Amino acid sequence: MFKEKKSFVNTLRISSILYLAIPSVLFLSTWLSFPFSLINSVLVIGIIFQLIRHINDFNFSSYSLTIPKFIIILVASLFITIVFGIGEFNQQILDFLTNNFKYYDLSVYNWPVYYKDYDAYLCYYTAYYLPVAFLCKLTGLEYGRYYAFFWNWLGLLLALVWIVVLSPKRAGWVVMLILLFNDSWFFIRTLRELGITTYLPPNFVSINGYHLIYMSPFSDQIAWAPQHVLPAIIGAWYFLFVYTNFTKWRFIELTIVWLSCMMWSPFATIGLTPFMVFISWKYRFEVLKDGKTIIHLLLTGLGFLPIAFYLTSSQVISNNKTNMFIWQAGVPEWPVYYLLYVLSNFILWVFFLRRTLATNLLPILWVTLATLCILPLYKIGMWNDLQMRANAPALCILGLFIVQQLVSESITRHWISVAAGLLFFINSISVFKLYAGFFPFDKPQNSIEKPFIKGCTNTLEFLAKTYGGPKAAKQYLMHENSVFQKYLLKKPNASLLQVRSGKLTGSSGN
Predict the structure, then answer these.
(1) Cα end-to-end span (Å), the chain
(2) 151-176: per-residue pLDDT in tens?
């Protein structure tokens, strides 16, 4: 039984690494010019191969892995994927109108994707879409909905399996409750009803256009932005596992997971960075004395370097209304609302967790809370994408700690524990409301095969007409003078063939 459980955990680790890294390998091998395509692909694949060779080395503890628990997470992950419309079996959230265009463009256009109307190449974190689009190119766009369903379901399944691995007691309950973990809805709702302030819209604090937004890293973000939250969840669980099972080779393991998330979501990588630094800091001198490990780290960084060049080549337009520090919002009372935000969402849980959390996990809790308090100080995007996406890894860890303590057999009936449980379930009301909004089942507004809503033919046209005009569309484009376009980008005549589908013959954007 010991060996079987250990083998299962190792399989989960390998599966997680491959799930996160495959899109990066696919990008490096198809979007870069020769010889960079060959060199960087071989580097990343080689490092992953070496990592798998060392993956058996870890200190096994009492992970609870049973068939009933696996069935629970299998059913839960399938249910969520179907209900949220991924695979087009039900209505989809608003952002999927754009996501379906992304799938379509990546499937139909040659790689690298080039938009004639803008005379520019696509520059966007496309990891969530690339494997699906690649398969569509091979078999046909009509199968895209099934590939998208499987790819999303697989990532969600891995994320939920990690919860079981990290929860030796009552793992089934932990999985179910963590999907209900939510924000300070109760506080905001109460203050709004009392008329205390005008800075509290339905679910977030808004200070003169500066949005302090808190979104659950589970149900809300799985529905809205799985491309951001799946790597954040898997990365957070993986980092938490490594924290209690650290060796020198874990530097390579952490680095692979951390850099693989970059092509999925730069925000997820930002959110994982504090944990990356904290977990590895204790062993930094041991690594500096180990030349072999240093060489592996350098090669890993070089392998992923073109992705960093690619993502920093975007034509993102600087705007002080969408990129600013909180004190630039122009409201003298901002400290009050900042404190309200961090106290009601994060700090209040300290009173509960300090009593119940294992001593060896308290340092990670402090890193988690520090991350969640520091991130709100700077805003990126109209609705503060930094807050909604980069805080997901920390929220995952905080949510897991809270739920594990709520279902613990050793928890006492102290008033703090009772209050924590009551607060948790009151805040989960909005999650139930989210799920209820997807019933009864209905068809999505557009699809991967036919995304042409509002008469638009590609992603940029749709964004220009519905999401802020041409400036919004330019966020998805590469700057022509960037290092990536000048030296690393594959030339158009060497691109992949367009998708095999008689319905779409000749509809390439190149």
Answers:
(1) 55
(2) 999 999 999 999 988 988 888 889 98
* CB-facing half-sphere around the CA of 409: CA atoms within 13 A: 5
- How many beta carbons lie within 10 A of that of residue 253, not counting itself? 22
* Model confidence pLDDT, tens digit, residues 366-385: 999 999 999 999 998 888 89
- Nearest-angstrom CA–CA distance, 390 and 384: 10
Task: Write out pLDDT tens, residues 62-119.
Answer: 566 677 778 888 999 999 999 999 999 999 999 999 999 999 999 999 999 999 988 9
Element holding 325 (H helix, E strand): strand 323-325
Give the C-alpha separation, 318 to 224, whole Å: 25
3-state secondary structure of 198: coil
Is the separation of the CB atoms in 123 and 314 below 8 Å?
Answer: yes
- Cα–Cα dist 477/346, whole Å: 36
Long-range pairs of 169-174 with CB within 8 A, sequence gap ≥ 24? 169/64, 169/404, 169/407, 169/408, 169/409, 170/407, 170/408, 170/409, 171/64, 171/69, 172/68, 172/69, 172/72, 173/403, 173/407, 174/400, 174/403, 174/404, 174/407
CB distance 153 to 78 below 8 Å: yes
Residue located via tokens 């122009």: 330
Question: Residues in the chain, how many?
Answer: 510
- pTM for the whole structure: 0.93
Contact 80, 156 (CB under 8 A): yes
Q: What is the pLDDT of residues 469-486, one digit of tens each?
A: 777 777 899 998 899 999
Residue 438 one-letter amino acid: F
